[in-house]
Amino acid sequence: MTAACPACVGASAGSDAMSASNVQFSLPSIHCAACIGKIERGLARVKGVVDVRVNLSLKRLSVHGPVDGAVIQSALQDLGFEAYPLDMTALETGRDTQGRALLLRVAIAGFAMMNVMLLSVAVWSGATDATRDLFHLISACIALPVVAYCGQPFFENALGALRVRRLNMDVPISLAIILATGMSLYETLQSGAHAYFDAALSLTFFLLIGRYMDHQMRSAARSAAKELTALEVHSAQRLADGNVQTVPVSELAVGDQVLVPSGARVPVDGVLMSPQALTDRSFLTGESAAQSVVAEDRVQAGEINLGMPIELRATAVGDDASLRQMAALVEVAENGRNSYTALADRAAQIYAPAVHLLALFAFIGWWVATQDPRLALNIAIAVLIITCPCALGLAVPAVSTAAISRLFSKGYLVKHATALERLAEVTHVVLDKTGTVTVPSTPDMAAFSNTQKAVIKALAQQSLHPKSRALVTALADVTPANVTHIQELSGLGVQGRFGEFSVRLGQGSWLGADFDGLGLQLAEAPPKAIDGLETLRPGVQQVLAQIDLPCEILTGDSALPAQRIAEQVSVPVTSEARPDDKLARLDALKQTGAQVLMIGDGLNDTAALAAAHASIAPASALEASRSASDIVALSEDFADVPMILRVAKATRDLSKQNFAIAAVYNCIAVPVALAGFATPLAAALAMSLSSITVLLNSQRMRSVR
Questions:
Q1: Of 88, 167, 202, 521, which one is least surrounded by beta carbons within 10 A?
Q2: Do 524 and 659 lie in a common domain?
Q3: Is residue 475 one of the residues assigned to a domain?
Q4: Does a structural domain hold residue 610?
Q5: How far apart (Å, rounded) are the C-alpha atoms in residues 468 and 480?
Q6: Contact by Cβ (8 Å): 364, 323
Q7: Range of the domain at 633
Q8: 506 shares its domain with 565
Q9: Does 23 fall in a domain?
Q10: Which one from 68, 170, 432, 557 is the annotated catalytic residue?
Q11: pLDDT band per the 50, 70, 90 thresholds, residue 460
Q12: What is the DSSP letter of 303?
């Protein structure tokens, strides 16, 4: 059963806000090329539409032309797609300038390295005196500007660490590059026999490759808080002196009277002034069942008005409203995740000071022993280069990139840089129910006669309730019966008269039945349950059987349907859990030492997805939830979740193996450099060999079963 879209905006509520020539929508229910074709063909017939573009990976629609956004939203709903209006300025999306800059630096460093190596071949072949000096000067002209430009990412990070009196991987990297370049320039100006510009450039080139690979993993992650902000209502209808004024939500104040049209989203927290209302607050509770409220009851920003237009008095606006508070929860949770220290960073805390001490001891020792500062500096530079953490810098990104590629081929998109490391540490699994463990399904109407189906459609089409909409869709080919005196009772159901008999469609408790869910009653006959509005997601039972970890379900749904699903999958369940309840449960698990994997899909899961040690969301999830998660399941089942955990553990193991390779390499190479048997150029070649070895070992990820 699909809940009413928590970001839907009624025509009269949002027309002013979305009348621009370019409107954007989030379309969480699209999943294939057929969806794209249906949307593009359908909207092309709408008057005023000039161009339509659907991005399947982002599940986002862009419409160009002088057309009202509310008209587009209505057309999308007629096509069978939920539409979430987005404020693109709030998302602050733009081109990946940092990634493009890194890639440009990789290209420049690689091109310069090859050219300087060609010049070095002439020197190695025996060029001497003026010829050698000329080649060294040409190499300097190439290397100096390239090192100054391409080395900026390392230099800036190193300076940032030194300002706060810390050491990180970029400090020895920067020292090695600067000293190799500076010493080479000095030797060139002194007509020295050796210059190592090629060593400095090869260092820069290999390290930039690792930095770019790491950036690519991080670039997929987006701020879920920005996504939530983009879903907010940006205009509202304010009542003043009997007149209706369409104003920006930012202009509303506490005490203002606000009109919320049918089908529109509530823009602020407030108190209901109308006699009664029917709302969908699934964005908070995860439960799609409509909520009945009466005069003086509180309503919250983000709820959907499912009934007639209502009036409310604003009690909380702006940052005090519920939707903003949820965004704040997500930001706090994301900050907690970002404080996780990556494996490579933890290694740097030990490795960086050790490298500096070795180079310092080499310089002091050889200066004292030979009284030759030039020789001592050459050996110290060789030590710095040969111990340069290039292999360490590639150790994690190389494995992670191979793992991410492997998972993507299986239909899983990894979005966060440290996601696989954290997944390997998971000890407890928490799942949402609606949309995660279960998925909407077409109701089973085989047990109903043609007359009963006709009555059901006649009653269901008079209601905006999501279950009623699902029934109308399932009975598309059925002609509705002639039911009169139809009346909808908030939170209960719909009733009317069919000939001489009363007919009712609604909750089992209202019909006097012993089942929980939707049912039909004709006259005084026993109520008949309508089954099949919700079914288990494919693969869930196999996943829970194969994961050798404690599992539980947290859901905002009511107790009976939650318990029914829990019995099918044989795991404990907590029902009627709000977003803050889910966060509290995750905090309680953390207090016991558990590392939690959260799997969810709704807005009510967003904060929990961000706060969990690791998180997974299905592709059908709301965009904000997908953004808060570490991994997005592009397929419609979770059968490969155990494989994800195995790949995560293999990623951790191979990363540690790469660290071991780097350590063994250093155990062999460092004594050679300390003994003075390695020039800076030989050190650079040895460093490159260790990096290639790490890259080859990382490819073993592809053989993990």
A1: 88
A2: no
A3: yes
A4: yes
A5: 13
A6: no
A7: 411-439+536-639
A8: no
A9: yes
A10: 432
A11: confident
A12: -
Q: Using alpha carbons, select from 321, 250, 237 the residue that is nearest to residue 87.
A: 250
| pLDDT above 90 (res 428) | yes
Q: Check: CB of residue 299 under 8 Å from CB of residue 259.
A: no
276 backbone φψ class: left, alpha, beta (φ>0; ψ -120 to 50): beta
Where do runs of H (alpha helix) occur along 246-370? Answer: 282-285, 322-338, 343-370
| Alpha-carbon span 667 to 665, nearest angstrom | 5
> Based on the structure, what is the number of domains in the chain?
4
- Residue finishing a domain among 516, 532, 548: 532
The answer to whether residue 581 is catalytic is no
Determine if the pTM surpasses 0.70: no
Torsion of CA 188, 192, 194, 200, to 10 degrees: -30
Distance CA 228, CA 330 (A): 9
Over the stretch 24-44, which tens digit does the pLDDT of each residue have? 787 766 766 667 878 888 888
**pLDDT exceeds 50 at position 504:** yes
Quick one: 685 exposed, middle or buried, by C-beta within 10 A (0-12, 13-18, 19+)?
middle
- Specify whether the CB–CB gap between 630 and 582 falls below 8 A: no
Residues 475 and 524 in one domain: yes
Whole-Å CA distances, 530 to 3, 446, 450, 533? 17, 10, 14, 8
- Residues 76, 104: one domain? no
Beta bridge partners of 614: 597
Cα separation values, 623 from 39, 226, 537, 547, Å: 18, 11, 19, 27
Q: How far apart are CA 690 and CA 274, in angstroms?
A: 73
Q: Rg of the Cα trace of the chain?
A: 32
Which parts of 339-449 fold into alpha helices (H)? 343-370, 373-386, 390-409, 419-423
**Per-residue pLDDT at 3:** 37
37 C-beta neighbours (distance < 10 Å), count = 11
148 and 19 belong to one structural domain: no
CA-angle at 633, arms to 5 and 548, nearest 5°: 120
Continuous segment of H or E residues that includes residue 313: strand 310-316
Question: Do 549 and 612 share a domain, yes or no?
Answer: yes
For residue range 219-255, what is the model confidence (pLDDT) as tens digits? 543 444 454 455 556 678 888 877 888 888 878 888 8
DSSP state of 321: S
Query: Do residues 569 and 433 lie in contact, with contact meaning Cβ atoms separated by under 8 Å?
Result: no
